[in-house]
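for ur thesis appendix - tRNA(Ile)-lysidine synthase. copy paste whatever u need, i formatted it the way the template wanted (i think)
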Amino acid sequence: MAEIDLHRLFQSLNQHHRVLLAVSGGPDSTALLLLARLWREELDDGPDLFAATVDHGLRRAAREEAEMVAHLSERLGIPHDILTWDGEHPTAGIQEAARNARYALLASHAGSIGATALVTAHTSDDQAETVLFRLIRGSGIAGLAGMAPERQIGAFTLLRPFLSLPKTALVATCEAAGVEAIRDPSNFDPRYARARLRAELLPSLAAEGLSADGLARFAARMRRADLALQRVTEDALEQICPQPWPEGAPLRVDRDVFLDLPEEIALRVLARLVEHVGDEGPAELGKLEALMRWITSRVGQSGPAGRTLAGALVRLERDSLMVAPAPARRFPLPTT
Ligand SMILES: Nc1ncnc2c1ncn2[C@@H]1O[C@H](COP(=O)(O)OP(=O)(O)OP(=O)(O)O)[C@@H](O)[C@H]1O
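the 3d part is after this line
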């Protein structure tokens, strides 16, 4: 515990007057509770700490575990609440549904207690799993950057101060404090892809020399590259299609300038235009790449051909690349 520099670790929390710690009762977030309290104790002035545990209603023991966190928080003098997920529990994709519900409950609770930051205890091991998971799913640079240490979500900031710390350091923190953390059996259930990664793939990679720590460092490098690429993309957009962009109207960029952009930047520019004009959120990277190949194949050809993606119609015109709202379906479904 002595090697952890608490001031450096928690400096991002200091920008806030009230922060909400997300504590499942597992070793990582129990250590978050212990270390944040230790850090706060040493400050004359710092944020007020609050904690919350979500009971997803998925395991019998969950309520009791949440109450154990409540007792520990009380001992530490940190106000704690148990938040219950009583919405519909789907049978497929339960882990993702539970995660979405958890963040929604925590965000709404943060709002109700006036906290502007939500703090989770994701570690470098979680980061390694996330990166591998995304690599398998075919992510690009932005996805391979893993979880951000700090992210703005609407009115509050999501902070992950432990992203460079290994789980072992946090387990050791709990042990040194004599606090027993909860072991969630779903973390070891081979029905879940993450559990299989943790149990099989990560140890095999470590045996070949790619440790979880190495993967987390890789994610940090990808984040650096992604931030640089984001900046270049913003500059390119500013140059070829200055904002504000009209709503519901076509956007046009100079065709030759667009085609002359480095491919990664052209893809990002295209992604932004499609997302703004379309109504289906961000387009998948693989589909954007296919659209880009189609655009370059259209150079030198004439005719009004266009392609649609994520609710946007894309057309290469004589002087411009046009991105417009996709025409409504020709045969709309009856509304009654
Ligand atoms: N039920 C929960 N209630 C509150 N916060 C949670 C809950 N589950 C997860 N979190 C937050 O999200 C982080 C990452 O979740 P994850 O599922 O990876 O961890 P965990 O297995 O619950 O165990 P740990 O507490 O050791 O991280 C946790 O560290 C914690 O900050």
